[in-house]
Amino acid sequence: MQETASTDPATAAGSGRIVVEGLGKRFGPVEAVHDLSFTVEPGSVTGFLGPNGSGKTTTLRMILGLVVPSTGRALVDGVPFSALTSPGRVVGAVLEVQGVHPRRTARAHLRAAAAAIGVPDSRVDEVLTLVGLAAAADRSAGGFSLGMNQRLALAVALLGDPRILVLDEPGNGLDPDGIAWLRSFLQAFAASGRSVLVSSHQLAEMELTAQRLVVIDRGACRFDGTVAELRAGHGSRVLVRAADPARLAEALATDGITEIDRVDDGVLAVGGADAVRVGDLALAAGVAVYGMSEERAGLEQMFLRLLAGEEQR
Ligand SMILES: Nc1ncnc2c1ncn2[C@@H]1O[C@H](COP(=O)(O)OP(=O)(O)OP(=O)(O)O)[C@@H](O)[C@H]1O
Questions:
Q1: Are 299 and 230 a contacting pair, CB within 8 Å?
Q2: For an engineered disulfide with 167, which of 149, 159, 181, 198 has Cβ 3.0 to 4.6 Å away?
Q3: What are the ABC transporter domain coordinates in residue numbering (predicted)?
Q4: How far, in Å, from the CA of 212 to the mean position of ligand 1?
């Protein structure tokens, strides 16, 4: 079927976006993905989170034209992946790290991959440097660690200088330094106006890497928004040490703040209000405050609450 050119800027060709609309996939009795819609905007990293078997890989494979959707559609840079004329120059993807021939060097592997998408050899050294493998360029891939293989796979994805990156669990096998490096690499890539969609089950890491999050569970979307929105909805608390906690609790309650726990001697944990509001109310009530801090619930905890909440529906 011929796709007609869209006039909607969200789905227009050349938008640099990934647009997923009502996407679904059924494998026999298993509904792997159900009515999923989200957009990956240029200039930001979008984290794609979900527990094992939640449908992340299936979704990424549909975006990349490797699995045919049962319902809906996925557009890459305004068109279905299959309609891209030079896909390697538009979207770079790392789905699962394929074994490289063990006797092949990183450079030889990249040269072959470059030739396959019509990219000059000169790009090979550039991507080796970009992923931090320049010093290992002439070593056989057989001796590479999992982390080095991840970097090599990323180098292949970058050969066509794509404007969109799609990565399935790229942090797997990376040590803490490698994870920090990947985080700054993806952030810099996005900051140059390009789009990143990265799946992970490492929620705390995504909180640091991504601006937007799409959380799925059992194939369906549970959350789509910014990290700040997720935090706001599954909240952080203000810890306040006060001279007279009972009077402060009373003043807060009078103002409609009832989520109050006494966590320590003289310390109240207050939910549903920020530090400014708690401080102002303490001042108005004449209660001395000796210290305040924000207890930011870990994304992991929020994520578990999110899934637990959905299960009760
Ligand atoms: N080719 C297939 N045939 C049958 N079922 C499949 C196929 N691919 C995936 N599934 C099923 O679809 C569901 C979603 O799998 P998927 O691999 O997309 O999840 P995931 O979130 O990527 O999981 P993980 O984090 O473990 O990789 C699972 O129940 C899986 O068994």
A1: yes
A2: 198
A3: 18-243
A4: 23
Centre of ligand 1 from the C-alpha of residue 38, in Å: 19
| Contacts of 242 by beta carbon, 8 Å cutoff, 6+ apart | 248, 266, 268, 282, 287, 288, 289, 290
Instruction: Using the atom order of ligand 1, give the atom closest to the CA of residue 28.
Output: 4
Ligand 1 centroid – CA 266 distance (Å): 50
ipTM of the complex: 0.96
How remote is the CA of residue 178 from the centroid of ligand 1, in Å? 27
CA 92 to each of CA 18, 95, 107, 132: distance values in angstroms, whole numbers, following the listed order: 13, 10, 18, 18
Distance CA 242, CA 258 (A): 17
pLDDT exceeds 80 at position 163 = yes
Atom of ligand 1 nearest to the CA of 61: 18
Q: Where are the alpha helices (DSSP H) in 131-224?
A: 146-158, 176-191, 203-209
CB 74 within 8 A of CB 40: no
Of residues 82 and 237, more confidence is placed in 82
Which residues 6+ apart lie within 8 Å of 275 measured at CB?
238, 240, 292, 294
Domains observed in the chain: 18-231 (3.40.50.300), 237-295 (3.30.70.100)
272 vs 259: CA distance, rounded Å:
7
Going by alpha carbons, the residue nearest to atom 5 of ligand 1 is 27
Closest CA to 162 of 125, 133, 189: 189
Pocket test for ligand 1, best of 27, 169, 200, 303 (most atoms within 8 A of CB): 27
Distance CA 143, CA 13 (A): 42
